[in-house]
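Honest question from a wet-lab person: if I give you the sequences of every part of a complex, can you actually get the arrangement of the whole thing, not just the pieces? Trying it with mine:
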Amino acid sequence: MSTASLQLDAHGRLKHFLSIEGLNNQLLIDILDTAESFAGVTEQTVKKVPLLRGKTIVNLFFEASTRTRTTFELAAKRLSADVLNINITQSSAVKGETLLDTLRNLEAMHVDMFVVRHTDSGAAHFIANHAAPHVSVINAGDGRHAHPTQALLDIFTIRRVKGPDFGRLRVAIVGDILHSRVARSQIHALNLLNTGDIRIVAPKTLVPAYAESLGVHVYHDLEAGIEAADVIIMLRLQRERMQGALLPSEHEYYELFGVTEEKLAVASPDVTIMHPGPINRGVEMDSEVADGSRSVILEQVTHGIAVRMAVMSMAMHHQKKVTQ
Amino acid sequence: MMTSSTQHPDRIRISGGRVIDPANNLDAVLDVFVADGNIAAVGTPPDGFIADHEIDASGRIVCPGLVDLCARTREPGQEHKATIASESLAAASGGITTLCCPPDTYPVVETPADIELIRLRAEAAGKARVVTLGALTRGLDGEYLSEMAALKKAGCVGVSNALRPLANTQVLRRALEYAATFDLTVFLYADDHWLSANGCAHEGKVATRMGLPGIPQAAETAAIARDLALVEQTGVRAHFCRLSTARAAHMVARAQFDGLPVTADVAIPYLYLTEIDIREFDSNCHVIPPLRTTEDRQRLRDAVQRGIFSAICSDHQPHDPDAKLRPFPSTEPGISGLDTLLPLGLRLVDEQVMKLGELIHRLTAGPARILGLPGGTLAVGSAADICIFDPELTWLLDPSTIKSHGHNTPFMGWELKGRATHTLLAGRLVHTL
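Yes, you can. This is the full assembly:
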């Protein structure tokens, strides 16, 4: 089943949220608009709406995560759902239980939605393909494939800062593109919104084969890549990848690809600095940039809750239609 | 050699079929006469021949039983996936009379006893000849040479380290030299282990989009370049298994032109599928080496037609359902292929990739020669391993028609054309449709 038909129902509404690929421009904008309406909720004194009262959401994390899991949990709670966090980094796998068995056991507890993170690309698709018809699946990151809610919250943040016309924007994504599900989802989302110029900036060891086919321009020089950029998105560099056959050292990476105030001089004067977190200060960027006035890194985190509320409520809305 | 209790006539006349025997440049409507397990005559009956049984083959094609260069029966060790009995039955119903198994069973095929066990199981099943490759290194550990002389004496048709890496180039060089000492063919999987490590898809546009760890073309070509240098150095006879890239086909063609003793084969799924087929994370398309580009597929087809690849095999890898019910990278690679070898081969003729005679050569005499086996021919006096098929019969591959225990095939649901109606093994009918 194609991604589009897997994650959308017959009326083109969200059933699962697995990847940006398979969405159309209008649905993407609908999600952003819905998130905008939830952004108000999170700023109220009583930060709850009763939309998902009585629903059970399971955060099923096969890979360690603090930030993403926490924002999904908060989003679910603000929608008044019951939330269960299950971390299966080792336990069940060691006991020999298959992913499918884990899924069936949880379904037997009448779960309405799975929020899934897994080390394998395609894991969320697999779960959506095998879940009971009434269950929705939200991809919270699968291997190197997709992290669509992260990409959406980045897009949401850019839209808030720069306005809705992406056609005039130059966006540079800097860092480990090869291993990044975030970058892939961002690129798809930016292309869906007809962004004027999407660039990726990294040494060749961190750029996937045929990267241009994703619809980006590839740069191996930071200053050339961020020249006149309106938005710079830095990616986290995993510690284990900083030494060895991909990169010689943190030091050389910072020298060449670390963003400093000085290097930012070539970017647009009102450039917006983003990072999905957590930051390695002094590797991807220095603290001056991370904490500077052009950084929206903390706003990204706040927006993450509203975006996840939007996606969860829209996918659950589909469920309501099924049961009626 | 067969001990099955089924009744079988001693003398069979196969009448009115189009007999295609590429090894003897034969393509004509003739009768074939079988007596005492052997081909007694083709065309005119031997003096005093009275058939106990006649098979009407009019409208059908009579050719040597197919010889499959690579089929895993999963026995010994993984009988929950399939067995020698189940897969030799599937082979017979697909017109295949000889299966060659790689040594990566559990335990590994590394002693005469392992070969004997497989031989006995195959004889008990009585549906197909099952020959084996012996391990190139002990336990396929890639470090210590196996007892190749003993393996050869016990009947192995070649040696291989299957998909397991060798510790270093020196071990490879010594293993090739030692095999050459006993005139054993070495079956090489062209894979640079370091370049392919952790990969599960062709390193190209599709894998990039899907975020699947890639296996670059160079994993294959770097290994071939190294192996060819060592073949030249050692003089060993080498066979490259399951090549997947255009560049590899070119390198083998060049080596053959230069007179090196190298042959190669391709598995039939690679002549149809490409990287695009994994797009929806279809785990049935998870294979090693990975499915490459449409350009590669075209060049592989050319290489088979030109005889650079003198064999097409099924690369049969039956799995239990659980092996494929996981996220794509965690699934076990491989396609169940015995049921589809003949019909997918015939489709190449329909698509005008090659002539029928060329196809049958690549499925019979070609692989038999690589294995050093006398079969793959209908020559008078040879064992009567015969496939009779209806080239026009269309059928649907579905869970009710597939005979292998492994249902893991991306061709499930395909309408196929051409099906074996009779299979004879040493003159004994082991399959009728």
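Two things worth pointing out. Residues 69 and 100 of chain B are 5 Å apart (CA to CA). The first helix of chain B runs from residue 84 to 93.
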